[in-house]
Amino acid sequence: MSTDLSKLRGEILKELSLNSINSGIYAGGWVKKPSGRTVQSISPIDGKNIAAVMTGSKSDYELVVRNAERAYEEWLKLTPPQRGELVRLIGNELRKEKQSLGKIVSLETGKTTVEGEGEIQEMIDIADFAVGLSRQLHGLQMASERYEHRMYEQYLPLGVIGVITSFNFPSSVWSWNSFIAAVVGDVVIWKPSSKAILTAISVMKIVTKVIRENHYPEVFSLLTGSGSEIGNMMSADSRVKLVSFTGSVKSGRIVSETVARRFGKTILELGGNNGSIVTSKANIPLSLKGVAFGSMATAGQRCTTTRRIIVDEKIYKEFVSKLVGIYRMVKVGNPLEKGVLVGPLIDDTAVKNFNEAVKRATKEGGKVLVGGKVATIKGLEGGFFVQPTIIEMPKVTPITCEETFAPILYVFKYKTLDEAIRIHNAVPQGLSSSIYTTDLGEEEMFLSAKGSDCGLANVNTATAGAEIGGAFGGEKDTGGGRESGSDAWKSYARRQTVTINWGKDIPLAQGVKFDV
Ligand code: UN1
């Protein structure tokens, strides 16, 4: 792939059939003149425009919802395995387009080439998972206490659902929700982040081509626009049965309250503030690699990024100094270049937040061990680069309880595992966690009810980098939602308990008699 950005821009736009101005609304077809603002997609690598998108507002919203409702009627005529067949065809097409889509992800979000392609691989993986699932939407059968009665539960589709995604996983999180929801029988309206809008359009072009060529109902729609405007409309609209939201705790709270007022359903994937405990029994080289990946991959902009490590005082000096060494060596720069592991932050606001967090941590008693400053990359002066940063903290302070979307790692020292777990669980968020140890007792303690309070708990691997096969999500301020694998599909369905009397009388439960 070319690392020359101006050349790459032209290549990508051509490969993905993007124009210099694109429609950001798809409702059974691309809407020619959406009624909202035109926004520029900017590459964080050099701060220059890639292409523009005409986004939607209220009138487009109505069009999209009505189209989705019509598509739902058609979708219900297909069986789950037939719906799975569409997802299979989409997965096949994504395999062919993995590189070109990966490039737009890298250009638009600043991910390294392998991470950009990894994003698309995650879509392919969840497509395969959803296809299998389309033949396994199992319910339970219960033993009835009534004679000649049968009881079971079935999972029925919800209808129209809304999926609001963030810039950092700009297409895979959509697919986690949408492919699973689609096989269950739902239809999906996608509100992507305005910071990764071309990725969403490119994905939709591929997905809708498969739909049209194979004559399936238009079950996927795209609705770009302002987060607060479109997000609020979706959250307040009882036609949208479920809103799956990935984003900040602050916005998630508004979505949650608005949807709850109308008794709708939500799946919330909000902030993470993930910690790793490194014990004196850890395999040090393995732990160093795990922490380095967890804290610096995607320039610290994953919900699952390792933001805190809690290290046993017995190995603290050795471990931290080795980690600082790794941080010094890691190459920051153009994420499309070979050997670069840390690309830019998403925009200048993210850089401001980074600077602010470093300043606050220092004020709260922290000592910067490495990094702490904005990075200037030759030839990419307009890009949003910062130095990967380690800050030693004397205790848990307000800034270490916040999620700053940047490569800042706070380091704490502990004496006992109980203390380590206390520090670990002291933050409001509860997404991912890990422990590095070879000691069975330490590992089991971490995984016990007295251990990690997060939705994801890992042993000898990073907080980041989850596979699609598990249910993904977190506790506390992270919002409690579960997406992706395991039985997370149940969130996209309504459960119905069915009782069938196939006898000739009406025996009543609990021995009640009602003879008329
Ligand atoms: C996110 O940051 O919202 O576990 C999702 C990971 C990725 C997904 C992160 N597979 O790091």
Description:
The protein has 516 residues and is α/β, with parallel strands linked by helices. The protein folds into two domains: 2-270 and 479-496, Aldehyde Dehydrogenase, Chain A, domain 1; 274-467, Aldehyde Dehydrogenase, Chain A, domain 2, CATH 3.40.309.10. The protein is built from 14 helices and 23 strands. The chain has a seven-stranded mixed sheet with strand order 14-15-16-13-12-18-19, with helices on both faces. Strand 7, helix 6 and strand 8 form a beta-alpha-beta unit. The longest helix is centred in the first third of the chain and has 21 residues, at 113-133.
Notable traits:
about 525 residues, alpha/beta, Aldehyde Dehydrogenase, Chain A, domain 1, Aldehyde Dehydrogenase, Chain A, domain 2, 2 domains, seven-stranded mixed sheet, six-stranded mixed sheet, 14 helices, globular, binds 2-aminohexanedioic acid
Give a short summary of the structure.
This protein is 37% helix and 20% strand. It is α/β, with parallel strands linked by helices and 516 residues long. The protein has 2 domains: 2-270 and 479-496, Aldehyde Dehydrogenase, Chain A, domain 1 (3-Layer(aba) Sandwich), CATH 3.40.605; 274-467, Aldehyde Dehydrogenase, Chain A, domain 2, CATH 3.40.309.10.
